[in-house]
Amino acid sequence: MVIKVFVATSSGSIAIRKKQQEVVGFLEANKIDFKELDIAGDEDNRKWMRENVPGEKKPQNGIPLPPQIFNEEQYCGDFDSFFSAKEENIIYSFLGLAPPPGSKGAEKAEEGGENEAQKGGDEDSGSPPETQEKN
């Protein structure tokens, strides 16, 4: 699976350039494989991006601005949703990727399954609520 980041390399907007740099920089820093696709110099890329951003995610004028993020053909989101996922520490699920082994996301996923099983066991044994919180 390849993460695709649609950018405009010749954008006149400083805000758009900063958003693009933040997305690309984060992916590079976290060693997440991605492909940068320029919509400014490639009409096919621009057309594909505009056609594949879901209608409810498009701005009122109907033209989505970069950066737009996809996992292969699956739409992930725009900069705002990327930023929210990053802040909530759920970037791997946002990108549709499994967290790398040993990362907080992978540990939480493993602990989540164990905690659910433990909670079920604790409730059956009639343990007081304080005991459940400690587990």
Kindly describe this structure.
The chain has two domains: 3-97, Glutaredoxin; 99-135, no CATH class. It has a four-stranded mixed β-sheet with strand order 2-1-3-4, sandwiched between helices. The chain has six helices and four strands; from the N terminus they run E-H-E-H-E-E-H-H-H-H. The protein is 50% helix and 14% strand. By secondary structure, it is of the alpha+beta class.
List keywords for this structure.
globular; disordered C terminus; 135 residues; 6 helices; alpha+beta; four-stranded mixed beta sheet; Glutaredoxin; 4 strands; 50% helix; 2 domains
Main β-sheet description: 4 strands, mixed
- What proportion of the residues is helical, as a percent range? 40-55%
The CATH homologous superfamily of the largest domain is named Glutaredoxin
* CATH top level label of the largest domain: Alpha Beta
As a whole number of angstroms, the C-alpha radius of gyration is 20 Å
> So, CATH architecture of the largest domain?
3-Layer(aba) Sandwich
Number of helices: 6
Shape: globular
The run of helices and strands is: EHEHEEHHHH
Beta-sheet strand percentage?
A: 5-15%
CATH topology of the largest domain: Glutaredoxin
- Biggest sheet strand order reads 2-1-3-4
> Can you count the beta strands?
4
